[in-house]
Amino acid sequence: MTHEVTRCTFSFMNKDQKLGQQLKTYRLERDWTQEDLAKHLGVSRRLIIRLENGKGNILDLTRAKIERKLGLKSPLAAA
Question: Does residue 14 sit in helix, strand or coil?
Fold first, then answer.
């Protein structure tokens, strides 16, 4: 089973919602719990839940830290 977000849906998301979908995909591909992912990233489980549900609003510094740990390309790096 794959956990992909369609390009169409993805294009309407803000950067925190996109990150939330990427986190969920990353987590499910590894059969991790939200707690496992939170520990891996050094953030709270509550933040993971909020991001995965599209309700997160995080600082650019925190987003960059998460993207770096997951090996994702940060939009901040391109700026």
Answer: coil
